[in-house]
Amino acid sequence: MPKAKSEKQTRTAPLVHGAAELSSVIVDGHSSKLRGKNGFLGDDANKKTFQLKLEELRKLMRMDGKDPLGRTPTKELSKKKIDAFLCGDDVGAVAIVMAAIEGFAQDFAAVIEKFLKDSAWSKTERIVVGGGFRQGRVGELAIARTQILLNASGLGVELVPIVHHADEAGLIGAVYLMPDWMLNGHEAILAVDIGGTNVRAGIVEFGKGKSRDLDETHVRKSILWRHADDEPSRTATISKLASMIEELIGEATASQLRLAPLIGIGCPGVIEADGSITRGGQNLPGGNWESDHFNLPLELKKAIPQIGGDDTFIMMHNDAVVQGLSQMPQMKDVANWAVLTIGTGLGNAHFTNRTREKK
What is the pTM of this model? Predict the structure, then answer.
C-alpha cells in the first residue's frame, strides 16, 4: 500500500502522479492488498457480493415453487428495479431484498472492521461510501444497516454516503489533485474518470478568481462513453478520449469559460510518479495498460498538447482517491478519514487532513 511522506517533505514535494502529498490531504494509502475470505478484502463486499446473496435467496424461494422477483436473472436486475421491489406491495419481494441487504451489511461491516485493524486506518473517524452501489435506496439502506452493526461492535467510526452522484464525484475530486496556485485566474478544469465499463470526461467548474469556493465545485458538462459495448483497443480508447476532451474544450470556449490547461484523471490501480500503472489496470479497455511501454498521461498529452494556447498539464491518481477527494468539503471537521467505493470491486483510500476545522 502506498505510504505518505512527512509533512515537512510535503511542502517541497514535486508535482507527480499518484502523489501521497496533496494540497489538502496526505494520502496514507489506497488499493489495499489486505486479504479476506474470498481473496482480496474488497472481494467480500462489492456489487457481485450483493447479487450472490440475492440469488441465493431467490433459489430458496424457487424450491417452494415461486420467486417473487419474477424470471429476470439476478445479474440483469437494475438498481431501479430492485428498489421498486423494495417499495412494492409484494411482501415476499420486499422480504428477499431486505434479507439480501442484511447479508451484505454483515459482510460489509466485517470488511470495515478488518480495514480498521490496519495501521493506516487505525485512527479513522469517518468513512465515506461511494461507487455505483451507493446510488439507490438499497445502497442507502445497506450503508445505514452497516452503521448500526459497527455501532453494536463498539467501533467509533461514522459511515456516510458520498454527497455527489458517483459519476460526478469521480470528476469533481480531480480539482483537489491540483495545487491551488494552478487554479488561479481560471474557472474550471477538465477531468476524466476511467473505469472497466465506462469512460467519463467533464468540465468541472469551481468558481472565479481569488474568491472561488471549492466547496461549490460542480460538473458543468460531461460526456459518457460506455466502452464495454465497443470493446476498443487501447489505442482506440486514447483516440476516443481525446475527441471527448476536444469536444469539451470547444464547449468551454463557446461559453467563454476560463478553462485552465489542466486535465485531472482518476484511473483504477496503483499509479506511479511517472504516470505508469503497476497494478490494478487489468479491466481497462484494450488491455495491457500496465505495460512498461505505455503511459496514459504522456499519450494523452501527445493528443492534446495545448489547451487555450497553454501547454497541457495532466495529473493522474487512483480513482477511489479521486472520488474520495470530492467529499473534502464534508471532511474538514475530522483529521483522519477514508473512502470505500462499492462497484465491480471495492475501491479504498485513506486520508489525513493537513488542516482541521474545529467542531
Answer: 0.89
Rounded distance between C-alpha atoms, residue 181 and residue 141, angstroms:
41
Whole-angstrom CA distances from 89 to 60, 84, 101, 210 are 21, 10, 18, 54
Q: What is the pLDDT of residue 212?
A: 58
Cell of 323: 472520488
Backbone angles phi and psi of 197, in degrees to 5 = -120, -40
Q: Using CA atoms, how far apart are residues 341 and 323, in angstroms rounded to an integer?
A: 8
* pLDDT (tens digit per residue) in 170-196: 999 999 999 988 998 899 999 999 988
119 vs 123: CA distance, rounded Å? 8
Mean predicted lDDT score pLDDT of the chain: 89
Residues 218, 42, 337: CA angle, nearest 5 degrees:
50
Q: Which residue has the higher pLDDT, 2 or 275?
A: 275
Helical (H) or strand (E) element with 144: helix 137-152
Strands 277-279, 270-271: pairing is: antiparallel
Which pLDDT does position 10 carry in this prediction?
36
Give the residue ranges of DSSP H helices in 128-233.
Answer: 137-152, 166-172
Q: How confident is the model at residue 356 (pLDDT cuts 50, 70, 90)?
A: low
Residue 4 in this model has a pLDDT that exceeds 80: no
- Between the alpha carbon of residue 129 and those of residues 6, 140, 190, 349, the distances in Å are 27, 10, 24, 11
| DSSP secondary structure letter of residue 83 | H
Strand order in the sheet with 336-342: 25-30, 346-353, 336-342, 126-130, 158-161
Question: Is 346:45 a contact under the CB 8 Å cutoff?
Answer: yes
Quote the CA–CA distance of 70 and 76 in Å, as a whole number. Answer: 12
C-alpha cell read off for 231: 470493446
Taking alpha carbons only, the member of 138, 37, 45 closest to residue 345 is 45
DSSP 253-316: HHTT--EEEEEEEEESSEEPTTS-EEES-TTSTTS-TT-TT--HHHHHHHH--EETTEE-EEEE
User: Three-class SS of residue 223?
Assistant: strand
pLDDT at 209 over 70: no
